[in-house]
Amino acid sequence: MSPALLGLVTIAIGVGGCLAYFYFSNLLLDKVLCPPRGPNAGRNINRANIIRPWLFLGPAVLALAVYLGYPVIETLRLSLTDRSQGGAFVGFANYSQMISEPKFWEAMRNNMLWLIVVPAASTAFGLLAAQLTDRIRWGNIAKSLIFMPMAISFVGASVIFKLVYDARPAGKEQIGILNAIWMQFEGGAGSLVFLKLLPIIILASFALLVGFVVWLLASPLKNSTEGWGLKLLRASAALLGLWGVFLSIRTGFGIIAASLPYGEPQTWLTIPFYNSFFLMVVLVWIQTGFAMVILSAALRGIPEETIEAAIVDGANPFQVFFKIKVPQIMPTIVVVWTTITLVVLKVFDIVFAMTNGQWETQVLANYMFDKLFRANDWGVGSAAAIVIMLLVSPILIWNVVQARKEMR
Amino acid sequence: MEYIAGRKSSLTWAVHISVVALVALWLFPTVGLLVSSFRTADQISSSGWWKSIFPSEQIVQMRTGGADAAVQENDVWVVTGNLLLDDETSPGADVNLTRFGVSSREVDAYAIGETATFANDKKTFTMEADGTYRFTSVDELKSRGQRIFATATVPPKFTLANYKQVLISGNRTDSMAKAFFNTLTVTIPATVIPIVIAAFAAYALAWMNFPGRALLVAAVVALLVVPLQLALIPLLKLHLGIGIGKGYLGVWLAHTGFGLPLAIYLLRNYMVGLPSDIIENAKVDGATDFQIFTKIILPLSFPALASFAIFQFLWTWNDLLVAKVFLIDASGETTVMTNQIVELLGTRGGNWEILATAAFVSIAVPLGVFFAMQRYLVRGLLAGSVK
């Protein structure tokens, strides 16, 4: 049978089956098991009301348990066993093997870099785009064009950016835009402005942004009544941010000291350390639209009076933006930041399609895929998956706490 | 207030310009791929795509007529004709010639209209901008004509040949037709089935009272962020163990499972917000829960259903990891588009015309859905993350 026909049949069976299940199970409950008449009518109605929610929930709970609940536990178990020894329990051997591998630490370092850069850059660009497009007439068109990369697959985006980063041997016409621009520089004043000054300004503003976030994270540490877990979380996120600030300052000095190879086409994806950033650009390009849409809705939700009051008091547009608007949408910024963080932690396709972890661009998700399906080492692969889970879990707990607050 | 008004107008221009720059920056990479997919391999490798929109200067190589076209006039052999029309390597008749040369070392030595004298003054060549030429030689000519290099201004040219190659040629490595239908086969059931299951569950979580409801909602929120990387090995083992193996059924089930938390979360949040009067009135009138659900809740929840459908569609269409693990077996018969593009990147990494076209074929459908249903997508995003 052709797959398309099979697909149609599956849709029919799947949807029909679901509907039939819901219909007939309800019918069964009402007509046969607990009919709301006869001598026990009252008791039957109560019973039916107890059972019915579970009829509605049944398939979903089953699917969630099998497809998401069970794997968490099973992965945990697999990470403690060795497949080549017939699944024998080996304790933390897989973990210790993993942390002795330089590739794992490379993946961890890159993942931390991704965790700092991508959410920060996407949120900042998104906020900028939201603020700029909100007040102009063709803003909606601009928004949907910036939002468009959301619909493009990571793989498609990888192809798009491989063309941007393409390199031809020196002397030939460059077909990648980045190299075509790069070949225009030959060390004059323009090169000094665009290749030294501009990156340093960008790095400095990035360091300031991350520094600000670190300060936001760290300042409630001294005199708050938060639990130890939250304090620990704040402290570790702040340390990660400090590391980011340190890295960007170091990179800034590196740029000042570097003598750039003008006139030679660069294979951007093979330059260690910097190539990770060329990969991050792809994700920032995709996620900015998401951040923009959410932040723009939040910006519109700000009460006009607060802004009017600030203007009457003589605040300039920048003060209005940073002192009035940003503090009011802080909760939304946090949500956007964490959502993008989640995407970053699972990023796989971009690295897989563009470098496959070569030239020091490995990340955890791709490292795990490598272990699972190329090295066939389920133990270490599962251990890597557990590391990803551990990195996600603070956000998971925070989400659950928030959701429970709302339920009350 | 004059100060503020004046201030605003001076900034408006800056805002417009920055937005134009931002949009251009964001569109530029995609446009590059789109333009490249309409160019031939030669065009792509000879010039950047951003030059293809304008007429480009190229050095073209052509040949004059040989001995059989030559006529003897006053002791010299003369060949006349039109290079652009007669020669098969001509870049086309609509080309404008500006300079020419007769040796590969000096391809642009002469301006149009000048006469080149070469081969110890035994040969001359002259050419007009439209390609008509006059070539003379004291000695008898060889059967092949003289090589001529010309600087030509070629107007932009685009072709659909790449799309033919990728869509209908049936070429084993390039053809995306099968992968396209495979992707469609994965996507549609994987979008429809979780909606049905999630809608019922969301109704129960929103409008029914039972012990453990809060716990279940919390569990859904928690499962929302569980990385699906965790699920790969255990589920693959499970699928192989119960006989589903690698195939469509497995990938449908996997996508259903992974999509459910978001579906339930979105739909429940939406259903909770529906007015309770309607539901209570219907209950008073004797409607069963099943009737309330199908006749009242489902139609009212259409916006939420649509936004989840778009999410799930985009996610399953664009997915690589789940398909690689649960669907694609060694035979490669069930490959999906994302996987085929990654393979093309490996095997035909330099053939940008094929890569760009293949990528664009896979991008086109989600882009269409995106622009058609953007409203619902935005609404879903807002409901999903801002509460």
Shape of chain B: elongated
CATH topology of the largest domain in chain B: MetI-like fold
Per the principal axes of the C-alpha atoms, what is the gross shape of chain A?
Answer: globular
Radius of gyration of chain B: 33 Å
Number of H- or I-type helical stretches of chain B: 14
Q: Give the mean pLDDT of chain A.
A: 82
CATH superfamily of the largest domain in chain B: MetI-like
Class of the largest domain in chain A in CATH? Mainly Alpha
- CATH domain topology of the largest domain in chain A: MetI-like fold
CATH architecture title of the largest domain in chain A: Orthogonal Bundle
> Poorly predicted ranges of chain A (pLDDT <50, ≥5 residues)?
none
CATH superfamily of the largest domain in chain A: MetI-like
Helix fraction of chain B by DSSP (H/I, runs of at least 4): 55-70%
Task: Determine the number of helices of chain A (DSSP H or I, runs of at least 4 residues).
Answer: 16
Pair of chains with the largest interface and how many residues each contributes: A-B, 116 and 115 residues
The chain-level structural class of chain B is alpha+beta
Radius of gyration of chain A: 27 Å
Strand order of the largest sheet of chain A: 1-2
Distance between the termini of chain B: 37 Å
Instruction: Name the assembly state.
Output: heterodimer
Number of strands of chain B: 9
Structure description:
The complex is a heterodimer of chains A (408) and B (387). Chain A has 408 residues and is an all-alpha fold. Chain A folds into two domains: 3-78; 104-407, MetI-like (MetI-like fold). Helices cover 75% and strands 1% of the residues of chain A. Chain A has helices at residues 3-33, 41-78, 93-99, 102-134, 139-147, 154-165, 177-182, 189-218, 228-257, 274-300, 304-312, 317-328, 330-345, 349-354, 364-374, 378-407; strands at residues 81-82, 88-89. Chain A has a two-stranded antiparallel sheet. In chain A, a hairpin with a 5-residue loop joins strand 1 and strand 2 (88-89). In chain A, helix 2 (41-78) runs antiparallel to helix 16 (378-407), helix 4 (102-134) runs antiparallel to helix 5 and helix 11 packs antiparallel against helix 12. The longest helix of chain A has 38 residues, at 41-78. Chain A is globular, with a radius of gyration of 27 Å. Chain B has 387 residues and is an alpha+beta fold. Chain B has two domains: 56-154, no CATH class; 164-385, Orthogonal Bundle (MetI-like fold), CATH 1.10.3720. Chain B has 14 helices and nine strands. Chain B has helices at 2-36, 41-46, 83-86, 161-167, 177-207, 213-224, 232-242, 248-272, 276-284, 289-300, 302-318, 321-326, 337-347, 352-385, and strands at residues 56-63, 71-73, 76-82, 96-101, 110-111, 115-118, 123-127, 132-137, 147-154. Chain B has a five-stranded antiparallel beta sheet with strand order 2-3-8-7-6. The longest helix of chain B has 35 residues, at 2-36.
